[in-house]
Amino acid sequence: MNLKATDVHIYSFPLHCSEALGQQLAALLSTDEQQRAAKFVFEKDRRKFIIGRGRLRQILGNYLGLPPENISFEYGAHGKPTLADVASGLKFNLSHSHELAALAVSIHEVGIDIEWCRPMDNMKSVAEKVYNDSELSLLFDSSPDKRIELFYKFWTCKEAFIKLTGEGFSRDPQTIQLPTAEICSADWIPAKCEEIQEEVMLKEFKTVDGYKGAVAVAESKARVYTFGLGDSE
Ligand SMILES: CC(C)(COP(=O)(O)OP(=O)(O)OC[C@H]1O[C@@H](n2cnc3c(N)ncnc32)[C@H](O)[C@@H]1OP(=O)(O)O)[C@@H](O)C(=O)NCCC(=O)NCCS
């Protein structure tokens, strides 16, 4: 697979498949991934993990020219998986929500988040924990329909940011400043965070209806290309 220096490739794929394909994907997992899969209490969570990791291995294998089962991962302080073979220069990040996953691949550090957009009874209290004053004003000055859309847009942008840095929720999401003037209109949204020097660019990407997705990339000239994978591909 050809990846140019400014490219960010995004794959969306379902987290369900036939039993036969599920077995093929499970066979691609490393011993530690199989051990992790075995620990899930609920079968549906095991299935989603296996499909996510299996697909991740297949897609990365296409870029690396390697059999999927030969790929090795390492993990950051907060669990971010990266390729053990740093010489390849390939970076990736995976996200899942409900029955859909999204994977970003680039030569730049990336973070991705996808969310299934369901109405929330406790939206106000969650928003007050993760958004700052200007973000909250924009959210609660909006109509109810627009509010749900903006809630998930802000959420996916902030989570993509903390997944790019690898900090996860060890970083308080309120420390990330989304430019409210640009968030509704700009294609790429520059995000700021006091102690992080590099510029992080955020972009919403198109995916399956009912879901929202955002990608964060440390490259101001990035171009996003989206791909979909069906159940049986
Ligand atoms: C990273 C985090 C934001 C992901 O939340 P989530 O709701 O599971 O979100 P997503 O589905 O978008 O992402 C999960 C995927 O991101 C990747 N991931 C895991 N940890 C990550 C991190 N710190 N940064 C970026 N990506 C990470 C993995 O590929 C994971 O899926 P997989 O394990 O099935 O392969 C959240 O799990 C978190 O904050 N973890 C931090 C935990 C931590 O700090 N613990 C304290 C130290 S032990």
| Domain module tally | 1
Tell me the major beta sheet.
5 strands, antiparallel
What is the strand arrangement across the widest sheet? 6-10-9-8-7
Mean pLDDT: 93
Do you know the CATH architecture?
A: Alpha-Beta Complex
Concise synopsis of the structure shown:
The chain is an alpha+beta fold and 233 residues long. The protein has a single domain (7-228), classed as Alpha-Beta Complex (Ribosomal Protein L22, Chain A), CATH 3.90.470.20.
Provide structural commentary:
With 233 residues, the chain is of the alpha+beta class. It has one domain (7-228): 4'-phosphopantetheinyl transferase domain (Ribosomal Protein L22, Chain A), CATH 3.90.470.20. The protein is 35% helix and 26% strand. The chain has seven helices and eleven strands. It has a five-stranded antiparallel beta sheet with strand order 6-10-9-8-7, with helices on one face. Strands 4-5-1-11 form a four-stranded mixed beta sheet, covered by helices on one side. A hairpin with a 2-residue loop joins strand 4 (91-97) and strand 5 (100-106). The protein is globular and about 50 Å long. The mean pLDDT is 93. The structure holds coenzyme A. The site of coenzyme A has 19 residues, from helix 3, strand 4 and helix 6.
List keywords for this structure.
233 residues, five-stranded antiparallel sheet, four-stranded mixed sheet, binds coenzyme A, globular, 7 helices, alpha+beta, Ribosomal Protein L22, Chain A
